[in-house]
Specification:
The structure is a single chain. The chain is an alpha/beta fold. The chain has four domains: 16-240, Glycogen Phosphorylase B (Rossmann fold, 3-Layer(aba) Sandwich), CATH 3.40.50; 247-445, Rossmann fold (3-Layer(aba) Sandwich); 471-569 and 648-731, Rossmann fold (3-Layer(aba) Sandwich); 572-646, 2-Layer Sandwich (Alpha-Beta Plaits), CATH 3.30.70.1020. It has 24 helices and 29 strands. The chain is elongated, with a radius of gyration of 31 Å. It starts with 13 loop residues before the first strand and ends in a 6-residue tail after the last helix. It binds GDP-alpha-D-glucose.
């Protein structure tokens, strides 16, 4: 049984962030006044927010200015509006959220539009949401972010609140890898989400798709059985938590609704936002087919379709509206008689009380989405079956189909099949209808919205997940196929890769077990080990203390050891004097514990000891000094590297070693693995992309061109031990 974490205490405030605030707003003389909106999620989360305190962060849907107060009417929790400009509404909301993500996440790729300018605004707005949630969440036990409009917000919250419990719920499907990877920004979005401790989806297949995507796109380590992801130094729990409805409220509303006006026709009901994912045209075509195949239903049955206007700013939705008008006209024209029209089509909302009466009195609910995260209409229909039970016909492509097994399932693309199933629903005996409805109702009453909130909070409160330490099986899965019986050229950075980072480089000694593993690798006759470091050549040779290896010091400007000739970049001679001049200028910046490491042609300015609030100015001065002296400055871990601008880096050094040692056709001779932990290693990762397997060690927050990530030095040691011990056909 997983343990609870006191940090995520059930008593501490909660911050909820969703695209829209759960209110509608009006400007008045007293400031903004809000009216609660009727959504189910609000009623479920409000009691939690009232009890624990906290904030709801979201876009009010109208123009507000930052800081404008919202009349609070004595609420126990705060409202934090995030203002959006007109351009942001267009690009973040109508654009990236609704024209790119919405269709793609529903596996309707041809409808998706990709526009880099939309993504820029999506990123920007997500940062704003994340920063607002973080500001509100300083004392929070949980920051809970909702839905596809805010996939990047978790990373921003994490930047400000490294230790706060952070969870996400996706209300729509998560598509398979082959669909998700169509997105030019797939890596960014996955990384944004992986800042969470918990990511929950409606059903297991979405969770599995997500695991598949992070494994294949980011090279994250995934435990499919436990549903955990390890990405860099962070782990995330992935769960399927199917959303429920306020069952008893719907049931009560159905009981209280006025009796039906006339029982003349039997009703097949469709209720949706007017959205192309909902399969409304397909439903109408299935109904038309029913009338063709089973003419006995003519003049006896109608299809009542309520379509709530939605996203009419987006062209695809306007097109769908026109298409539906056309289909309704055609079918009604074809079958209508003096006293009967087959389709009654309402393009508007109806109030909830009335809606529940309509649910109750319908004979069949025909719920036919082409893809749907969950679909609450199916559940609400079931809750409202308080009298003669109606039949639920449900698309197998809705998340709801995972649990609502007693519904009659259809494939919405199969018009004939849907028509036959509809016929079966309309002719089903009462006994069978009652059995199915009873089972469905029992489950939905038990797994209602309150139960969902409770399980979400429980999962979010479980102690931070940890995966078992990396072991042979993981490395085998990643590398066996890659290495086969090839010779291995193994490149390793030193600081932060082989040795944990310390406050002073002289203290970053090589742990004995790492040295042992290095020696064991080097002793194999099918492995060549090279150490590639920013330290001076002599320094890194001394720190590693295994002389038979090849060493590249000063970011590869000097190379020595192994069976290749000593190398020193030919342009270095021009820089010795300049390095001295730069060094004496940097001395002036050696305040508050900062110091400069002299490494011959390169220098490193270390500011780890400098208090955080003094760093910014110092770092700026150092960078401009470096540039003034004609050097290049590069950021490293609490340090700035000054390097001669001679177009040489760790990537080129690795290539030099490979070509010198194995010849120009090296890629046919050897397999290359490179392991590094910092920005300067990215040059090697980029150089070697597609030609090697590369590992970035450490934080999940930095983007990387590496194939995979390893959490820490211990994982590097485990990799070395595995490489040393592995069975090779050649050895
Ligand atoms: C997303 C996911 C997931 C509809 N017409 C009227 C009306 N409604 C209400 C229904 C229901 C809601 O709208 C629709 O919910 P769905 O779940 O069917 O669909 P989406 O809006 O697409 O929601 C979906 C959901 O998020 C939750 O996670 O299930 O898969 O796409 O509650 O009752 N309500 C009123 N009048 C109407 O005319 N009052």
């Amino acid at each position: 049984m997983a343990r609870k974490d006191s940090n995520a205490s059930a008593e501490r405030p909660v911050v909820v962030a969703s695209n829209r605030l759960p209110f509608t707003f009006k400007h008045t003389a007293k400031g903004l006044v809000r009216e609660p909106s009727a959504g189910g999620l609000v009623s479920a989360l409000e009691p939690v927010l009232r009890k624990r305190g906290g904030t709801w962060v979201g876009w009010p849907g109208i123009d507000v200015w930052e800081g404008e107060s919202i009349a609070a009417r004595g609420e126990a929790y705060r409202i934090r509006p995030v203002a959006l400009s007109e351009t942001e509404v267009q690009r973040y909301y109508h654009g990236f959220s609704n024209r790119t993500l919405w269709p793609l996440m529903h596996s309707l790729a041809p409808q998706a539009r990709f526009d880099a300018r939309d993504f820029v605004h999506y990123e920007e707005v997500n940062k704003r949401f994340g920063a607002a949630a973080a500001e509100e969440g300083e004392d929070a036990g949980l920051v809970w972010i909702h839905d596809y409009q805010l996939l990047l917000a978790p990373a921003e919250v994490r930047k400000h609140l490294p230790d706060t419990r952070l969870a996400f719920f996706l209300h729509i499907p998560f598509p398979p890898y082959d669909i998700f990877r169509l997105l030019p920004w797939d890596r960014e979005l996955l990384r944004g989400l992986l800042a969470c401790d918990l990511i929950a989806f409606h059903v297991r297949s979405y969770a599995q798709n997500f695991l598949d995507c992070v494994e294949r796109t980011l090279g994250a380590r995934v435990d499919k059985a436990e549903m955990l992801v390890e990405y860099g130094d962070r782990s995330t729990r992935i769960r399927a938590l199917p959303l429920g409805i306020e069952f008893e409220r719907y049931e009560a509303l159905a009981r209280a609704a006025p009796p039906p006006q006339s029982a003349r026709e039997r009703v097949v009901l469709g209720i949706d936002r007017l959205d192309y994912t909902k399969g409304i045209p397909e439903r109408m075509l299935a109904f038309e087919r029913l009338l063709e195949l089973h003419p006995e239903h003519r003049e006896e049955v109608i299809l009542l379709q309520i379509a709530v206007p939605s996203r009419s700013q987006v062209a695809e939705y306007r097109k769908l509206k026109r298409e539906l008008d056309e289909i309704v006209g055609r079918i009604n024209g074809r079958f209508a008689t003096a006293g009967w029209s087959p389709i009654r089509y309402l393009y508007r909302t109806v109030d909830q009380q009335r809606l529940c009466g309509i649910y109750r009195d319908a004979d069949v609910a025909l719920v036919t989405p082409l893809r749907d995260g969950m679909n609450l209409v199916a559940k609400e229909f079931v809750a409202c079956q308080v009298e003669a039970p109606g039949v639920l016909v449900l698309s197998r492509l809705a998340g709801a189909a995972d649990t609502m097994r007693e519904a009659l399932m259809v494939n919405p693309y199969d018009i004939d099949g849907s028509a036959e199933t509809l016929h079966r629903a309309l002719t089903m005996e009462e006994e069978e209808r009652a059995s199915r409805a009873t089972a469905l109702r029992r489950r939905e009453r038990r797994d209602d919205l309150g139960a969902w909130v409770t399980s979400f909070l429980e999962e979010a409160g479980v102690e931070r997940p940890t995966l078992a330490p990396l072991q042979g099986a993981d490395f085998s899965a990643w590398l066996d196929n890659f290495l086969k019986s090839y010779r291995l050229a193994l490149f390793l950075d030193y600081d932060g890769t082989l040795s944990p980072l310390r406050e002073h480089p002289s203290k970053a000694r090589l742990p004995p077990r790492v040295r042992k593993a290095l020696i064991a690798c080097a002793e194999r006759n099918d492995v060549d080990v090279s150490i590639v470091s920013g330290r001076s050549l002599a320094d890194v040779q001394k720190m590693v203390g295994v002389p038979e290896l090849t060493f590249a010091g000063n970011h590869g400007l000097e190379i020595d050891g192994g069976d290749i000739p000593h190398f020193s970049h030919e342009d270095l001679v021009h820089y010795r004097q300049r390095a001295e001049a730069l060094a004496s200028d940097l001395e002036r910046c050696e305040v508050d514990g900062a110091w400069t490491e002299h490494k011959g042609p390169t220098l490193t300015y270390h500011y780890r000891a400098v208090p955080e609030n003094r760093r910014e100015q110092l770092v700026e001065d150092v960078r401009s000094n470096i540039v003034l002296h004609g050097y290049q400055s590069r950021d490293a871990h609490c340090a700035i590297e000054a390097r001669p601008p001679i177009g040489w880096d760790k990537g080129r050094a690795v290539l030099h070693i490979l070509r010198t040692r194995y010849g120009p056709a090296w890629s046919e001779e050897v397999r290359v693995i490179y392991v590094g932990d910092d920005q300067t290693d990215e040059d090697a990762f980029r150089f070697l992309a597609g030609l090697s397997t590369t590992f970035r060690v450490g934080s999940a927050d930095t983007p990387t061109a590496a194939t995979r990530r390893l959490p820490d030095v211990d994982a590097v040691r485990a990799l070395l031990e595995w490489l040393a011990a592995r069975q090779s056909k050649q050895s």
